[in-house]
Amino acid sequence: MYELSTYDDDQSVSLKEIAKNQGLSLSYLEQLFSTLKKERLVISQRGAKGGYKLAKPPQKISVGDIIRAVEGPIEFSECVGGAENYECNKSSMCVTKDVWQEVNDSVNSVIDNITLQDLLDKNQKKVKE
User: Fold this and answer.
1) Which value, to the nearest 10 degrees, does the dihedral of the CA atoms of residues 26, 65, 121, 55 take?
2) Lower CB density within 10 Å: C or N end of the chain?
């Protein structure tokens, strides 16, 4: 996703090119981008100049969006992550539940407030230094 954000909005990038640049297998990227496409984070284009591009501007895509698209919800404990059918008979007196909820909320807040544009900007600063 970061690599896609380095290209112009109208420019599609092939998975082969991304695989080569990032040292990743093409089959892994195909699976990954299939998921990203379903989650509407990327758009695919067919043809000679086909490939993938971001579905939204980099400032509208957070690290949290990407992680949740690929991995699912960030949950540090079943009792705070909203796991289906999870029942804990000790939840009313659990001392650590609030701690895990705070950790969960904090991590989600951080990753939701870092965008691809932020990563681009940070990299630009590093390049200039």
Assistant:
1) 70
2) C
